[in-house]
């Protein structure tokens, strides 16, 4: 079973060379720490920066330079800043190659819910509805089950949707799973030490298993 | 050139009346018009509709207006950092329209470019789409989203001149230039105000024609929401 860092480490293997990538808040942010040697990536932050760098040294903190999670960051050499319309213009015109974001629920046809629990929690969608509507490739990073122990991989999302038919791949502490074009969760890899039975038990939606399922190499 | 200079924030917001619709620039607490928010608070203006990506935090930014129940309606994309906001929303005291961040930007942009509406795929198939007209282009569905109509746009820039030209810094730019273009009356507060001719015309982000009032702000706190550093 993977911890959060492990999930980030596994997702880092999905990031291709010379691509523009948008990272969501939480586990997705950690992916930047595990990129493989020789992988050249430009991170976009949808509040208006291309070329997001590491967190600043204490003496270099700039309140005017933050990421979409409101954390202080740095801009790398070659970075550019822009207004919010241009930022979402580059998202909707499909210039961003990969979006990695968290989710509360994903359905077996690739629907995602991550912005609202009616009557309990309303944070808002921020840029997530834009990103999932237009990204070329979407990977969800999340825990397989919620705090109550219920599966987050469902036949149909119960929570209000963020987007429909958009998720391509899910990486959890238990598995790597793809969304089949005709619907269903295709088991691709197991996390180290995790059995198919464990994954089956944690998946409420239709799990498709064919042949031997390899263990993840991290 | 056309006279835009006002003495301070109080003078800039003097004619904002109860029930006005305001656009307020900023992302989180980054690039927010601190001086004008304080002046509106002191002036006692109430029943406001605020268009702003976020609602500040409990004790800073638009959060200050929320605390004193001055806001009737918020139009935002993300409000997760503000407990008082969430409380007023869940209890039904505050009217809230949550919309995708790109849609917020494009609806400002449309107003600034004189376009009545735009099409966007954000929110298709979600509750955001309910009651909205949609159209298919090249096999993909898009929602029709109308331009905002705000009485005042209140923005914060890094530098400006007395002709109203503005330059923004880093990610403090965010919604500010879009809103500056979109207000019926646009108020700009700047960290540094200079005479015309000092700023390089090639570096101007917002041409002065969009700005009706400008002043140099005071005592910027520039509060940081999440101070993250590396060793």
Report what the structure shows:
The complex is a heterodimer of chains A (218) and B (231). By secondary structure, chain A is of the alpha/beta class. Chain A is 17% helix and 26% strand. In chain A, strand 1, helix 2 and strand 2 (41-45) form a beta-alpha-beta unit. The longest helix of chain A is centred in the first third of the chain and has 9 residues, at 4-12. In chain A, the strands form three sheets. Chain A has a ten-stranded mixed β-sheet, sandwiched between helices. A three-stranded mixed β-sheet of chain A has the order 7-6-11, with no helix packed on it. Chain B has 231 residues and is an alpha/beta fold. Chain B is 21% helix and 27% strand. Chain B contains six helices and eleven strands. In chain B, strands 1, 2, 3, 4, 8, 9, 10 and 11 form an eight-stranded mixed β-sheet that branches. Chain B has a three-stranded antiparallel β-sheet with strand order 5-7-6, covered by helices on one side. In chain B, strand 6 (134-137) and strand 7 (140-146) form a beta hairpin. In chain B, helix 5 packs across helix 6. The longest helix of chain B is centred in the middle third of the chain and has 13 residues, at 101-113.
Strand and helix map with partners:
The complex is a heterodimer of chains A (218) and B (231).
Chain A: H1 4-12, E1 19-23, H2 27-30, E2 41-45, E3 49-52, E4 75-81, H3 84-92, E5 98-101, E6 105-107, E7 112-113, E8 116-117, E9 121-122, H4 128-134, E10 138-141, E11 153-154, E12 169-171, E13 175-179, E14 185-190, H5 196-202, E15 207-208
Chain B: H1 9-12, E1 21-24, H2 34-43, E2 48-51, H3 62-67, E3 71-76, H4 83-90, E4 95-98, H5 101-113, E5 117-120, E6 134-137, E7 140-146, E8 150-161, E9 166-167, H6 176-182, E10 183-194, E11 213-216
Parallel strand pairs in B: 1-2, 1-8, 2-3, 3-4, 8-10, 10-11
Antiparallel strand pairs in B: 5-7, 6-7, 8-9
Helix pairs in contact in B: 5-6
